[in-house]
């Protein structure tokens, strides 16, 4: 999802104009010349320019969202502009962990995938490099692994295979494995709505508690529900839209 779209949605959720956001950023950055200015904000939101680390830090501050979420979206935006042509660019963007996991999966070693939940970007790298044998290992782990972290990581990678051939298998697991469903939906909510993990878990568990933010949340999920590269994110976003839709228009 483009970083510019996320900035626009976060700004809109607060009822700020582009000038207001520029002013808030200027204050946060201590810029005497008023940088970045409305024109810079306009270019970010239009997708003409991707903000660098300096402004991402200040955007995270004024919006009160995790910096990691903004950096992740900006990194993926850079990669998307290359049309996913170079796997080396993806690996470089997400570190060496992805390539190490690819080797472990090929060797039937599930250990690294069972340690902690992988990121969206790491899953994309692994999915782009997985061979047929690795896909077979991941499919087995997604259904039969003893730990929910391994199952959700396997599902996350299979959901992002370029062919999307395993989309139905992933969504079947999400529908029937409550632990995997909660982990996957929390990860999608954190990434898509730019909130920390704890808040994301609360949104997933008790969406009614966030009725006042329903239009913003639903808008974000509506965009992710048509993500062509992540079957799991599409499914999770559709579920959240179903939960949030009755709250749209609540006062």
Indicate the overall shape.
Answer: globular
Helix-strand sequence? HHHHHHHHHHHHHHH
Number of helices: 15
Low-confidence stretches: 82-90
Total strands: the figure is 0
Estimated helix fraction: 55-70%
Let me know the average pLDDT: 89
Strand content: under 5%
Largest sheet: none
CA gyration radius, whole angstroms = 19 Å
Distance between the termini: 29 Å
Structural class, please? mainly alpha
Brief summary of the model shown:
Helices cover 68% and strands 0% of the residues. The chain is an all-alpha fold and 251 residues long. Helix 1 (3-13) runs antiparallel to helix 14, helix 7 crosses helix 8 (120-129) and helix 11 crosses helix 15.
Describe this structure in words.
This protein is mainly alpha-helical and 251 residues long. Among the domains are: 1-81, lambda repressor-like DNA-binding domains (434 Repressor (Amino-terminal Domain)), CATH 1.10.260.40; 87-179, no CATH class. Helix content is 68%, strand content 0%. The protein is built from 15 helices and no strands. The chain has helices at 3-13, 18-29, 37-46, 53-63, 67-81, 87-94, 97-106, 120-129, 132-144, 148-158, 167-176, 178-193, 197-205, 214-224, 231-244. Helix 2 (18-29) crosses helix 4 and helix 9 crosses helix 10. The longest helix has 16 residues, at 178-193. It is globular, with a radius of gyration of 19 Å. The chain starts with a helix and ends in a 7-residue tail after the last helix. Mean pLDDT is 89; it is low at 82-90.
Keywords:
251 residues, mainly alpha, 434 Repressor (Amino-terminal Domain)
